[in-house]
Write a structure and sequence with these properties.
Chain lengths: ~500, ~325
């Protein structure tokens, strides 16, 4: 018996000694639940990969927390008079992690790699207006465009357009050896477990107030909160609004919430009857109570939205078609379309992606049932969902679709005649198509806003999809970890400004 | 001996069957490495881009060619390269396996240390209140899912005491014995609870059977003490079903404890195989599942051999 007691005491001792290991003043302990799926900045679209890569690589320009363009590798930029040339001056202090300067040759090689279809670069479609890349000197790059392309600057502000060393491209080591010009170097990494990022001393963007970031991947969201509570993590990225709402209730922890650009939407497939009928789609739009779904599924953590989610373009959605639930109007519209007795259809959602998807689906199901529309919910594993989503193989789908800063970049894939994802949207008309073309070439800010306001109200009225709301992106930190500014893109680039108390 | 050799001879055949099954099963699941990586952005690819990625992930060859190529690699000890980790599959397995092995061993030790004495004790106290108490606890232990135990443990520790075992990285025993045990004890308890409850119930039932056997009564009538009869005569025979249960359970645990590894953020085999399936990393899924199957068969073989050691009457195939 005594030996058991001894063992227990030894274990308890071990527990406490290991648990209070000091979080060294120079290390920022970061925890998140999903790890990067790869390290090639040009081919990784997932947010989990992007937020890591943004700390290692830099594009020409980047967006700050207010979504304003800021210098990155480039220190300045300008369009030519006719809008067909975009000239960048590179920051002469920008260096790669191996100590070599970032030159116009690296920029040229990077874009050639992105535009080469064999690369499988994920954002290639945003840069296809580039017809030539000139490098008059080591610090100057001129992009030749096939016509005015107002959204391209925002499109370039993505780590998917990161500038990588020409030598690494030639050696074929992109994605395996990490040589970027970003604020951190990748010191070590075990995928899906942990990583260590060392502050890059020669980073041209300024000095970082601590020595390194230690990342731990904690797949369970409640474990993230526990790690913060126990002091094992200084800073954590939280996806589940349920867990996020617990943070402010814990002494010593702070929550940052920022509205996202990505949006929850009920996608109707107009290629299938009866969703092909305008009146039926409008009836569905009138039958849903967006705020109700938001309150129940996301604990009210978000905002009802129209199609445009970017702060510069977002407007009060109450002016849009049937944003106030109106069941009588919904029934009348159904009757007008010949479905007075309602109809039945299937509603597809992805399991756990986002964690709130099934709750949103169930709420939509019950709201539509009140006007006679019977929905059968099909929960699908993410990969199966994606396959069917891309094939347009669904009646209706609950989706959390990614947003972009520029409305054109965000929606040309769906709402133009030759959009890559027109087969997913399955609805297009001349008004949408022509408003998108106008928005692409218009460079005057006020005029663009008006074009997209028209686009938004037409889209809501045609109701090919029923836009619901945007959620929040959450990070949490221990008190004393200061300086992080959350961004609607969910970027963690703000970690470069963080200070840790001694 | 010939039985042992026959069992060994079956090994490669079963492995071949498993390899074919896994190879086909993972490919029958909708989605591939491209959809797993690109998600809905995959719809933005041009046909040429898609083609390039298909070649990159080796999805362009037919299944037979892919399988034979993989099988050929197996004979050279090459399980392939994981596309998500960019490392050889064998290397990933060898990095993750020590944690899984330790977790399985610790859970089994906990289960046996608690379950065996409790079961034997309950059997000797049959139908008395103390027996009832053990049975109730065993029932609760077995019906409580391990993730509940795990989450409760984390919650109590972090909220009540503000401490938590190291998560996200494995602290090897050789580097830091205390840190290692502190990290592994909670997951081992979470896994060991239901295991211990099962051991309790099986050992109690087996002991009850044996205590009513003639030879036990004979031993008692000869005046041997209760303790001697239990430890010397009854227990060794009651261990057979416990061994069977432990063998099967241990074999499962060697395959990784997906949920508990997930909650405690332990980089073990269970999480590797889960992530590999979600990311459609075919080579990794195939390699890890094959490794798990091999372990399972090996453990079962050892259990069969242990039967013979426990009970001299058990002889496989050898005629006297």
């Amino acid at each position: 018996m005594t030996s058991i007691k001894k063992t227990a005491a030894a274990l308890a001792l071990g527990l406490t000694t290991a648990l209070v290991a000091p979080a060294g003043a120079q290390t920022l302990n970061v925890a998140w639940s999903q790890d990067a799926t790869g390290l090639d900045p040009h081919t990784q679209p997932g947010f989990a990969s992007i937020r890591l890569l943004e700390l290692l690589y830099e594009p020409l320009v980047r967006l700050d927390a207010n979504l304003e363009l800021q210098p990155a590798v480039a220190e300045s930029w300008s369009f030519s008079e006719d809008g067909t040339q975009l000239t960048f001056r590179l920051d002469p202090d920008a260096v790669f992690h191996d100590g070599t300067s970032v030159t116009s040759e690296d920029v040229r090689a990077s874009f050639e790699r992105i535009l080469d279809e064999a690369t499988g670069a994920v954002a290639r479609a945003n840069y296809t207006s580039i017809t030539g890349i000139e490098t008059p000197d080591a610090q100057t790059v001129v992009l030749q465009l096939d016509g005015p392309d107002a959204p391209i600057l925002n499109g370039l502000a993505s780590v998917n357009a990161a500038i990588v060393p020409a030598s690494a491209i030639a050696a074929g080591t992109i994605g395996t050896e990490i040589v970027g010009s970003g604020p951190f170097t990748l010191a070590e990494r075990t995928p899906n477990a942990n990583a260590r990022l060392a502050a890059f001393e020669d980073w041209h963007g300024g000095e970082i107030a601590y020595d390194e970031i230690a990342v731990n991947v904690l797949p369970d969201e409640t474990a993230l909160l526990a790690a913060l509570r126990a002091g094992q993590a200084d800073f954590a990225l939280i996806n589940d609004p349920l867990v996020a709402t617990l943070v402010p209730q814990t002494a010593g922890l702070e929550l940052n919430a920022a509205p996202t650009l990505s949006y929850y939407v009920l996608q109707l497939n107009a290629a299938r009857e009866p969703m092909g009928e305008l009146a039926v789609r409008q009836a569905i739009a009138c039958a849903v109570d967006r705020q109700d779904i938001l309150d129940a599924a996301l604990l009210g953590e978000g905002e009802v939205t129209g199609p445009l989610t970017s702060p510069a373009y977002r407007s009060d959605p109450q002016g849009l078609f049937c944003y106030e639930q109106d069941q009588d109007r919904a029934r009348a519209l159904l009757a007008e379309a010949g479905y007075a007795d309602g109809f039945s259809a299937t509603l597809m959602a992805a399991t756990g992606e986002p964690p709130t998807a099934s709750a949103v689906a169930q709420l939509i199901q019950s709201q539509l049932a009140e006007v006679g529309i019977e929905l059968e919910i099909e929960m699908q594993e993410m990969n199966v969902y994606i396959d069917r989503w891309l094939a347009g193989d669904f009646d209706m789908a609950v989706a959390l679709n990614g947003g972009r800063v520029d409305p054109y970049t965000m929606y040309n894939r769906y709402w133009t005649r030759d959009g890559n994802l027109q087969g997913v949207a399955n609805y297009i008309d001349d008004t949408l198509d022509s408003l998108m073309s106008e928005g692409r070439i218009e460079t005057d800010e006020a005029a663009r806003r008006e074009i997209f306001a028209n686009f938004e109200s037409h889209l809501a009225e045609m109701a090919p999809w029923v836009w619901l709301f945007t959620g929040n992106t959450y990070t949490a930190q221990r008190e004393g970890i200061d300086g992080f500014e959350p961004s609607p893109t969910g970027s963690l680039f703000g970690l470069v400004d963080v200070t840790i108390p001694d | 001996m010939s039985y042992f050799l026959r069992r060994l001879a079956v090994f490669p055949l079963v492995m071949l069957g498993v390899s074919i099954f896994v190879f086909i099963a993972i490919r029958l699941v909708p989605g591939d490495a491209i959809t797993a990586m690109l998600g809905t952005e995959g719809g933005m690819l041009t046909p040429a881009q898609r083609e390039a990625l298909t070649v990159y992930f080796g999805l362009d060859q037919n299944w037979a060619v892919q399988y034979l190529r993989w099988l050929g690699g197996l004979f050279r000890g090459d399980l392939g390269i994981s596309v998500t980790y960019g490392q050889p599959v064998l290397q990933i397995i060898l990095e993750r396996f020590p944690l899984t092995l330790q977790l399985a061993l610790m859970s089994m030790v906990i289960a046996l240390l608690i379950g065996l004495p409790a079961g034997v004790y309950a059997a000797t106290q049959a139908d008395r209140p103390s027996d009832l108490l053990v049975r109730v606890f065993a029932m609760i232990g077995q019906s409580m899912p391990n993730f509940v135990v795990a989450l409760l443990a984390i919650y109590i520790l972090s909220v009540g005491f503000g401490v938590l075992p190291t998560m996200g990285r494995y602290v090897p025993f050789r580097e830091d014995p205390f840190g290692n045990l502190a990290q592994m004890i909670l997951p081992a308890i979470a896994l060991g609870t239901a295991f211990a409850a099962a051991v309790t119930r099986i050992s109690r039932a087996a002991m009850l059977d044996i205590l009513s056997e003639d030879y036990v009564r004979t031993a008692r009538s000869q005046g041997f003490s209760q303790r001697y009869v239990i430890w010397r005569h009854a227990l060794p025979n009651a261990l057979i079903p416990v061994l069977t249960l432990s063998g099967v359970e241990f074999g499962y645990l060697l395959g990784g404890a997906v949920i508990v590894e997930q909650i405690f953020a332990l980089p073990g085999l269970g999480r590797v195989v889960l992530d590999a399936i979600l990311q459609r990393d075919y080579a990794l899924v195939q390699g890890v599942v094959l490794f798990i199957a091999f372990n399972f068969m090996l453990v079962n073989l050892l259990v069969d051999l242990a039967y013979a050691a426990l009970d001299p009457r058990i002889r496989y195939g050898d005629r006297p």
